[in-house]
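Moderator note: this is an archived Q&A kept for reference. The question asked for a predicted structure of one protein chain; the sequence and the answer are reproduced below.
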Amino acid sequence: MPLDDFLGAVSGPVRQRGVGVIAPFDLALDRELWRWAPEEVSLHLTRTAFVPVPVSVEQANLVSDEASVHAATRDLLVPEPEVVAYACTSGSFVDGAGGQRRLVEVMRDAGAPAAVTTSGALVQALEALGVSSVAIATPYVVSITDRLRAFLGEHGVEVVASVGLGLHGQIWKTSYRDVVEIVRAADRPEAEAMVISCTNLPTYDLIGPLEQELGKPVLTANQVTIWAALREMGLRAMGPEQRLMQAVDAPAA
C-alpha cells in the first residue's frame, strides 16, 4: 500500500495508557509483566539502585527505602502513567501492613496519580475472591517467608502452610518444574487459595494448569501487581484460564 494511502486509512498509533513500574534492581521478568497488559497499555519500568546484598530481609529493606521509591516514582512521571506500581513482593511486606501503606503514600507524594504495591495488590485480590486462608510457596529463605506470613496475618489471612526454596539470588532462573514442586508441597485441603510470592519467580504459564490441578485460585506476584494497577485504570488484565481474571470485574476508573 502506498504510504499516503496508508496514512489515509489509519489514525494511529493507538493511544497508549501507561502504567509506571518500579522494579527491584534484579528483576529479570519484564516480559512476564507485559503478558497481563492489554494492547492499549504500555508499561514504563524503572529499577531501584543496585545493592551488593543477597536476597534477604536486609535486601528487602534496601530496595524499599522510601527515598529511593520517591526518586523512582519521579523518574516515571514524564510519560504520564495513570498509576505507579511498586513491583516487589518482599520489599512491600517486609515492614508489615504499615510499611506497605507508607510505600503507597510515598509514591502518591512523589506525584503518582494512583499507586499500588505487589503485597497490597495481593491483599486486594484475596479480598476480591473472598479468601481467608492460604498456602504460600516462595523462593525465599525462612526469615523472608516468615515476614510474608506475618503480613498476611495482619490482614486476617491465615497461612496454613508455607514452603520456600531458600534461594539467595538468581530467582528468575527457577524452572517451572521447581515452582510446581514447591506449590504441591505447600498445598493443603484447608487452604482456600495458593499464593506464589516474588515478582522474579516465573509463573504466568503455570497459573491455569495449577488452578485446574489444585481446584482453587492461584495468585502470583506479577499477576496481582498488574491486575491491581489495571483495576485502578478501570481495565481488565489479560489472563486466560486464570480465576482472578474470570471472577473479578474491573471497576470503573
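Archived answer notes: The chain has two domains: 17-121+222-239, 122-221.
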